[in-house]
Amino acid sequence: MSGPLLEVEGLWKTYHAHPVLRGVDLKVDAHEVVCLIGASGSGKSTLLRCVNLLEEVDDGAITLDGDEITAPGADPDEVRKRIGMVFQSYNLFPHMSVLDNITLAPVRVHRRGRREAEERARELLERFGLADKAAEYPDRLSGGQQQRVAIIRAMACDPSLLLLDEVTSALDPELVTEVMGIIRELKDQGMTMILATHEMGFARDIADTVCFLSDGVLLERGPAEQIFTEPREPRTREFLRRVLASRRL
Amino acid sequence: MTATPDTWVKSERQLARERARRRAGIRNGSLAAASTIVFLAVVVGGVLASPGWPSVQDKFFDWGEFKGAFPDVLDGFWMNVRIFLIAEPVILVLGLLVALARGLRNPLFFPLRALAVLYTDVFRGIPTILLVFMIGFGLPALRLQGLPTDPAVLGGGALVLSYGAYVAEVFRAGIESIHPSQRSAARSLGLSQAQALRFVVLPQAVRRVVPPLLNDFASLQKDTALVGTLGVVEALRQAQIHSAEDFNYTPYLAAAVLFIALTVPMARFTDHLAARAERRRAPGGK
Ligand SMILES: Nc1ncnc2c1ncn2[C@@H]1O[C@H](COP(=O)(O)OP(=O)(O)OP(=O)(O)O)[C@@H](O)[C@H]1O
Ligand SMILES: [Mg+2]
Question: Do A139 and B190 touch (CB under 8 A)?
Fold first, then answer.
């Protein structure tokens, strides 16, 4: 293994002179699952969007597999081909069937044959229990099904890194487990993932590493077990105490 | 839980409810019919009883005049239909191109974007009839080689320029109504800006603007009559000619009937599409 898969160094991001990320450092190894936790507004989504170059960074560098993707000449489209992203609100394309949602990027971006792309899509749908939904339109699916399709859509491009931004927080509790199941399965297959989440139980269960963000600063980082049982930083402790109290976990 | 779905027999309460609903339906229907009859009787009676009715009937509702003028007016109407059928697709293409030009972000295309803004601002501001005059009479006066001189073509061109500006704005509104998260999702999959527009944003935007576009086209159908001011013999012009012969306005009625016959189906179709879109959006739509 030669260095981390993703390396974020001294990342700054401001909106209208208001700093949202303040010098964030983060390393993610291949096959590692990292969970970002932190209060609402601490910058979790912004960090993920920066990694996927959906936001322009204001300072610092992001390196993927040894290439600096924030370098002036880097092509964002090339970078995004290697990174998958799943959003809180699913963002499926409502005018396309489930199958077309999944095959759009493989066919148009990765130039795979339609037959091959569809075969692969059906295989993924089958594996995640959605085989009978291939021809459905997104608005005919439950939230949990939509989010599973969104994850499959991101996976269909065989990304080397998957970013998941609060993928369960728009879902009813009984639908959360089915989406978590799919993420767990991806972990078992060795997928490298960064998840922003409010589900502490899930973070503890699935993460190799947990990072606590507070006001745009990556305050503490460590193995899941350590962060949840003996956090070093008082602010991490305070955050976890409040979250656990409110959610009776 | 007493009944399973396949043994369900409607309860007495439900049957009574359905009887009541049927009775209410019949009552509503009779009320609507009765009020319509009374309303029509009052209006028609009022018009027929008015002192000027005999002369109005003479000037506007002369069956002999109608029959005499109708074939020629219909002949002229064919010109309106042709102008409409040719102008409509050109307007769609022009409007879409202008809307896309306004969305260009590359600094290289700044002149195109500026031109698109200028075009929509100017041509939406000029009254259509004025534009028809300016192009129909002004352009030939320049006596430039290669410019068309057929007034039907010039008038149609004026309509295209005027409606193109409106349609461009309709398309632009449609494009902007698509939530930015759709674009983010497309870009995150590796689609380029142009691909995101082509495969994700535009198809949704176009679907959304079909009803307002049809609305604009109903109005274009009527405005084809403006081309008559350039001397093109179309329905309104034919009606005018016949009307002048006998000092009778009934030929205009013939033209009106033809225009209505064209626009009413379009309006109903628009309503139908709007209702369908509404139904689609209703159950758990995002
Ligand atoms: N496009 C934007 N323009 C201006 N401010 C923004 C924008 N996006 C995010 N912010 C601000 O940046 C801060 C961090 O937002 P971010 O969405 O990254 O937080 P988060 O940790 O994901 O919160 P949550 O848990 O609620 O999703 C917030 O204060 C937010 O208001
Ligand atoms: Mg967020």
Answer: no
